[in-house]
Amino acid sequence: MDAKTELKSRLPSRHVTEGPERAPHRSYYYAMGLTTAQIHQPFVGVASCWNEAAPCNISLMRQAQVVKKGVAAAGGTPREFCTITVTDGIAMGHEGMKSSLPSREVIADSVELTMRGHAYDALVGLAGCDKSLPGMMMAMCRLNVPAIFIYGGSILPGTFKGKPVTIQDVFEAVGKHSVGEMSSADLDTLEQVACPSAGACGAQFTANTMATVSEAIGLALPYSAGAPAPYEIRDKFCMVAGEQVLDLIKLGIRPRDIVTRKALENAAAVVAASGGSTNAALHLPAIAHECGIKFDLFDVAEVFKRTPYIADLKPGGRYVAKDLFEAGGVPLLMKTLLDHGFMHGDCITVTGRTMAENLKRVKWNKEQDVIRPANKPLLATGGVVGLKGNLAPEGAIVKVAGMEHVQFSGPARCFDGEEACFEAVKTRKYKEGDVLVIRYEGPKGGPGWAARSRSSPTAGFLARRAAFASAMSGRRRRSADRLRCCATATSSRSTPTKARSTSSSPRPSSTSAARAGSRESPTSLQDICGNMPSRSAPRVAVR
């Protein structure tokens, strides 16, 4: 028995390819053009969330083809399949948002069923949108077959009147237009230029947050979470991932070896350090649950509390994912956190090496100000903090990245749904100092946890400069994703009640000088991939 036959005899796909009794199964594979050699190689599922629902998914099929080439080059047989996506950017602001969080479960379930039903041996999963990223990672942990995650990449910024713009500007423009601060012609022009390419929203919203998590948790190749969707370097990450997953099969490294309690803490640390989406506090416990690890909202909040906020990213800051990648990528962010004791370096990753080994050759880039050193943070406490009080006795989280005021008190006005709140905002039926509480939008009342934080009510406040907006103001641009109240009011009364939430975070320090010179794509991929236990190193040439 040669090495290939011995390997195949230990893999799940042997149940559909090996022995005389599997002749009918093999017949189907011959019908799809596979050779005898390909049938007897390891089968690797290449799952993508490709669809035409939104730009975050549109490039995934192209990238999946490169993954398949990598699998084949390393001696595996790729089997491509797709699953669904509900895209928050288009689902939000109406009843469609109730489908968002359930889509995460459908993605995890459908990938699991396809993998189990066809006895695939490993998985490379590609995702590009808010719920598809955690859904794909949940599937990997549930299946516990060798797996690598690939993010589809972020969108590039657009240009409006000579200035860079993102989808965040469009949301804010809706509020300005509603009060006459922007013309219909300008709004029409802005909406056509704000999103000039494929990719997920460029700010540190949920997609880029969970992409950052994929590297920090160890399921993605270093730097792969940062490159924007249109960049050709994405094909190199995809090629390497397809090859590397075959080595994970041989090494026996599986997702539950990678996703440990320490790895989850690393993931929570990069969320806090980057001022990431509060949705991570929903997704990290879900990923942990698939591994049988207790890691709940309060565990996430505890990591947030002890981690400095160091990445000057939108929506709370000045830069987008493209800028982070060109400054040094997620590895630069993690390197300074590791050097100052905010991350665990002994966690194994999909490179076959530990986090500390992956980051060993990463050097600090002094010619950038996207990321601060961890000992000189924007805020001493992470950009997301945990709260507990009369509005949320079981806990809540709030994004404070970029906020100047971290304490706010006022009479609470309760609304039984987002639409009722937006109507009050449109008709200005509120007073300066009011705290608007939206009830019954949780997983039961919504249903489906309709986290519509970038939708109309907040956009209206951005234009009207109401008291709630002043609580979100600071030295940076106001953002509709700045403050997300994941709280359920405990009182059913509509009469005003006193609401108070506090955080001990200091005010943000001033930003450093503008970045000097142009940046090249990080060349450290050559170093990292060159030392991976993989045959792919000679093919990796970063321009």
CATH architectural label of the largest domain: 3-Layer(aba) Sandwich
Total domain units? 2
**Tertiary shape:** globular
The secondary structure category is alpha/beta
Strand line-up of the largest beta sheet: 2-1-3-4
Helical stretch tally:
23
Largest sheet: 4 strands, parallel
User: Mean pLDDT across all residues, rounded?
Assistant: 83
The amount of helix comes to 25-40%
Strand tally:
11
> What is the CATH third-level topology name of the largest domain?
Rossmann fold
Overall radius of gyration: 23 Å
Strand content: 5-15%
Pick out the low-confidence regions. Answer: 462-525, 527-543
CATH class of the largest domain: Alpha Beta
| CATH homologous superfamily placement of the largest domain | Response regulator
Distance between the termini: 43 Å
Can you characterise this structure?
This protein is of the alpha/beta class and about 550 residues long. It folds into 2 domains: about 5-15 and about 25-155 and about 195-375, Response regulator (Rossmann fold, 3-Layer(aba) Sandwich), CATH 3.40.50.2300; about 405-500, no CATH class. It has helices at about 5-10, 15, 25-30, 35-40, 60-75, 90, 100-120, 130-145, 165-180, 185-195, 205-215, 235-250, 255-260, 260-275, 280-290, 295-305, 320-325, 330-340, 355-360, 420-425, 455-465, 465-470, 525-530; strands at about 45-50, 75-80, 120-125, 145-150, 160, 165, 385-390, 390-400, 405-415, 435-440, 495-500. The strands form 4 sheets. Strands 2-1-3-4 form a 4-stranded parallel beta sheet, with helices on both faces. Strands 10-9-11 form a 3-stranded mixed beta sheet. The longest helix is centred in the N-terminal third of the chain and has 19 residues, at about 100-120. The protein starts with a helix and ends in a 13-residue tail after the last helix. Mean pLDDT is about 85; it is low at about 460-525 and about 525-543.
